């Protein structure tokens, strides 16, 4: 137990040093023309060092926010605005998906067209109808992955909260704080660990693993090369499946940020009382008389 505590304290202290060193030496991990820098980026993207560097930032920001609540409210508003902005933009992929499906069916069934060329400015690309039909999965993934935190801010996720609904205001806020730290963030971090190496295993060769040490990756850097996965699930189908893995990374990062925002909001609403519930909350509305169709059901 004592050894574990010492390990945590040591890594928290080293987190500040690692963060400072990374920011002052960006060429060591951002200059991907250097293969060693690329492998450092891969390693530290799913490392203990990154986890504690982010934890240090969270601790510092939280302490500042506890002292000056206006700062914490500013962070909440910023993170929620980011989730809303990304979600509202990504939601347009749903309209694109519908229009694309109509075009694919219409051209295939009526005109028997086998491919579509998109070149609005004379520069474009030509793909088969199968490719466009298959790419609908990617547009659907954009809506699912990038609108999750937006839906959370809007209160649109389905909840079964028989016990929570009957709890007092103070109990609800405590449950929200504990839930965001004990459930949301740990699950998101675990998903990040799988998603990070899942992504890079489809981008470079030789394959990298979560168990690879930095010394092993430095040796692999001598023979590393880009090998972007372009194999579709069907002949002439959508061949950009690595993009799904990038979306998964973006999804996890946004969930972590929203968990932090939710923790801060729950604390501030607990401290300031029931009158602060929903303070600064930017939610979309269907208009007067449509309240029954808004929020959580």
**Rough shape?**
flat
Summed up, the helix count is 13
Mean pLDDT: 90
Poorly predicted runs of 5 or more residues: none
The structure class reads mainly alpha
- β-sheet strand percentage: under 5%
Distance between the termini: 44 Å
Strand order of the largest sheet: 1-2
SSE string, helices as H and strands as E? HHHHHHEEHHHHHEHEH
Report Rg: 23 Å
The level of helicity is: 55-70%
Largest sheet composition: 2 strands, antiparallel
Describe this entry's structure for a reader.
The chain has 297 residues and is mainly α. Helix content is 67%, strand content 4%. The strands form two sheets. A two-stranded antiparallel ribbon has the order 1-2. A hairpin with a 6-residue loop joins β1 (115-118) and β2 (125-128). It starts with a helix and ends in a 25-residue tail after the last helix. 20% of the residues are buried. The model has no long low-confidence stretch (mean pLDDT 90).
Name its key features.
297 residues; mainly alpha; two-stranded antiparallel sheet; flat
């Amino acid at each position: 137990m004592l050894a574990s505590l010492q390990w945590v304290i040591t890594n928290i202290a080293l987190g500040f040093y690692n963060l400072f060193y990374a920011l002052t030496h960006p060429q060591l991990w951002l200059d991907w023309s250097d293969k060693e820098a690329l492998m450092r980026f891969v390693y530290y993207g799913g490392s203990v060092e990154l986890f504690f560097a982010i934890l240090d930032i969270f601790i510092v920001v939280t302490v500042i926010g506890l002292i000056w609540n206006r700062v914490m409210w500013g962070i909440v508003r910023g993170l929620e605005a980011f989730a809303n902005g990304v979600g509202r933009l990504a939601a347009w992929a749903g309209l694109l998906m519908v229009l694309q499906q109509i075009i694919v069916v219409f051209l295939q069934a009526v005109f028997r067209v086998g491919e579509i060329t998109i070149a609005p400015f004379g520069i474009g690309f030509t793909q088969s109808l199968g490719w466009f039909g298959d790419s609908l999965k990617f547009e659907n993934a954009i809506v699912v992955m990038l609108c999750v935190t937006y839906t959370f801010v809007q209160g649109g996720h389905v909840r079964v909260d028989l016990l929570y609904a009957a709890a007092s205001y103070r109990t609800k806020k405590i449950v929200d704080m504990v839930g965001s730290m004990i459930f949301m963030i740990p699950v998101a971090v675990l998903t990040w660990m799988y998603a990070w190496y899942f992504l890079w295993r489809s981008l470079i060769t030789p394959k990298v693993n979560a168990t690879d040490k930095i010394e092993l990756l430095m040796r692999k850097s001598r023979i590393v090369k880009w090998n972007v996965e372009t194999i579709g699930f069907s002949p002439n189908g959508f061949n950009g499946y690595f993009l799904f893995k990038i979306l998964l990374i973006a999804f996890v990062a946004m969930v972590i940020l929203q968990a932090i925002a939710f923790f801060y909001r729950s604390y501030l609403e607990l401290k300031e009382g029931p009158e602060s519930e929903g303070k600064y909350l930017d939610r979309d509305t269907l208009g007067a008389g449509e309240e029954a169709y808004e929020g959580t059901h």
